[in-house]
């Protein structure tokens, strides 16, 4: 797969971010979009040409992506888009469930009508995406929903820990296409979480959250098996 050509980032307006961060975010976007696939090498010299820069900021960008778990360095191969073993997928989702349940505990303390309204707006957009069978839009809104748990809970430490892992979860689910019935089930699960929080039953909200995230893990594992079978 060829690397996409971009105009020099030095010629772009100042975004307040360092060049390595800008490069890492662009590469991450391309990984999310499936332009760089699992196991694909990311060569410093090629990326330097793509971004019209030297290899130093590219090397730092790849290091940032390695910290986020999107790439890994392998002996004699260099940097490649990372693949996760089944055991790692289970462990990642166990951590996600723990973090999101903690987020709901924090959200319980801050819950008000504004919180309810924000979740309802996301649910409305999810329903539109569902009606249009727009799986890409639905996946983005799904991510927004779960991030909102942390944003409204207002625990910055918890949010930073989750944010560090969130890109990995996006990648794991990127390979699994949700069919219409999967999206419908997912939508009802998310609606159920909000319904429970709105009546003050945050224990039930966590139970429904665990069920929803577990289904996400199942899809990620199924997609991984299909990829392995097709390799």
From TrEMBL:
Pfam (any one): GntR
Domain named HTH gntR-type is located at 17-84
- What CDD domains does the record point to? WHTH_GntR
Q: List GO molecular-function terms, semicolon-separated.
A: DNA binding; DNA-binding transcription factor activity
Where on the tree of life does the source sit, at the highest rank?
Answer: Bacteria
Query: Is Ribosomal protein one of the keywords?
Result: no
Q: What keywords does the record list, in alphabetical order?
A: DNA-binding, Transcription, Transcription regulation
InterPro entries referenced in this protein's UniProt entry, alphabetically:
GntR_C, TF_FadR/GntR_C, Tscrpt_reg_HTH_GntR, WH-like_DNA-bd_sf, WH_DNA-bd_sf
PANTHER family per UniProt: GLUCONATE OPERON TRANSCRIPTIONAL REPRESSOR (PTHR43537:SF24), TRANSCRIPTIONAL REGULATOR, GNTR FAMILY (PTHR43537)
Q: What is this protein called?
A: HTH gntR-type domain-containing protein
Q: Which organism is it from?
A: Alicyclobacillus ferrooxydans
């Amino acid at each position: 797969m060829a690397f996409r050509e971009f105009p020099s980032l030095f010629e772009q307006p100042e975004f307040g971010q360092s060049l390595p961060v800008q490069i890492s975010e662009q590469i991450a976007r391309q990984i999310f979009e499936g332009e760089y696939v699992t196991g694909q090498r990311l060569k410093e010299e090629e990326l330097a040409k793509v971004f019209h820069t030297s290899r130093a900021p590219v090397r730092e960008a790849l290091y940032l992506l390695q910290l986020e778990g999107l790439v890994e360095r392998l002996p004699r191969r260099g940097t490649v888009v990372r693949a996760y073993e089944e055991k790692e997928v289970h462990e990642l989702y166990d951590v996600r469930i723990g973090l999101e349940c903690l987020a709901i505990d924090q959200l319980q303390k801050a819950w008000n009508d504004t919180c309810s309204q924000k979740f309802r707006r996301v649910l409305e957009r999810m329903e539109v995406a569902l009606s249009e069978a727009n799986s890409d839009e639905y996946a983005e809104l799904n991510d927004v929903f779960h991030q909102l748990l942390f944003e409204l809970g207002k625990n910055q430490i918890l949010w930073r820990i989750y944010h560090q892992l969130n890109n990995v979860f996006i990648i794991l689910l990127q390979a699994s296409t949700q069919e219409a019935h999967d999206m419908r089930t997912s939508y009802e699960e998310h609606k159920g979480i909000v319904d429970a929080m709105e009546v003050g039953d945050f224990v039930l909200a966590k139970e429904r959250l665990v069920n929803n995230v577990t289904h996400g893990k199942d899809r990620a594992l199924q997609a991984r098996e299909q990829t392995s079978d097709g390799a």
